[in-house]
Amino acid sequence: MKATLRKLGRSSWVQRAAGITAAEFLRLVWWTNRFTLDPPNVYKHIEPDMPVIIAFWHGQHFMMPFLKLKQYSAKVLISRHRDGEINAIAAERLNVGTVRGSGDHGTQFHRKGGVGAFKMMLRTLEEKINMALTADVPKVARKAGLGIIMLARESGRPILPVAIATSRFKRLNNWDRSVIHLPFGRGVIAAGEIIWVPSDADSETMQKLRLQLEERLNEVTRRAYELVGLPDEGAHA
To answer: How many CB atoms lie within 10 A of CB 67?
Structure first.
């Protein structure tokens, strides 16, 4: 039975149905929550620095397609895992392009299509398209990896830390304590101060900026939850 279910889960029509369903549920969440921006002028503030690398923690990725306004192009990095296929279908239905592969394995970019994904992200930024990806080390929640810092160094584009919180949600008991946002509440999209990585950054500088990104993502996530009147319980993952 388990083998049959796994095989069914790999079926393209099942994945497509799941992706479309997920996208439409997320659209419902977006339409039925009263979302505010913090700061209110965040788009106007960062527009001169676009394209930017949008960074967020892995458990908060579901609502990220709604960061994109019609006038701005954006793509998101999604894994090649079969669950990633569903996420990719959902993102593309919500008008966000996708790059498939691994976002952070440090020097081990050969894993899971990391080299190809890194090159595609560089190309995306060169084409003036914003690039969104999670900052976490794989399977280690809320520990920023060097991959996103390397992308900023090689592309010359700044990193924008972002968090989304809603007053109504279900938190999953998985490694990243993923949040399933629910309809009929209020929400906040919060952005932190951008981070620039010098093109000649050495290993010590890269580590300092990695820690700075980690701190700013944690701060902006706490702020987002405070603005909807809740504690950031994901910090205790």
So the answer is: 22
Residue with tokens 């900023």: 152
Q: What is the rounded CA–CA span in Å between residue 99 and residue 79?
A: 8
Distance CA(31)–CA(6), nearest Å, equals: 33
Facing residues of 37 across strands? 189
Tokens of 147: 């991959």
- C-alpha distances (whole Å) from 203 to each of 13, 41, 210, 213 are 45, 34, 10, 15
pLDDT value for 6 = 53
The answer to whether 115 and 155 are in contact (CB under 8 A) is no
Backbone angles phi, psi at 25, to 5 degrees: -65, -45
Percent of the chain having pLDDT more than 90?
73
Q: Report if pTM > 0.85.
A: yes
Least confident of 73-87, 98-112, 171-185: 98-112
Cα 227 from chain centroid (whole Å): 20
Residues 121-158 pLDDT 10s: 999 999 999 999 999 988 888 999 999 999 999 999 99
Helices (H) and strands (E) in the chain, counts: 7, 11
Cβ proximity of 186 and 167 under 8 Å: yes
Nearest-angstrom CA–CA distance, 189 and 181: 13
Strand pairing report for 186-191 and 136-137: unpaired
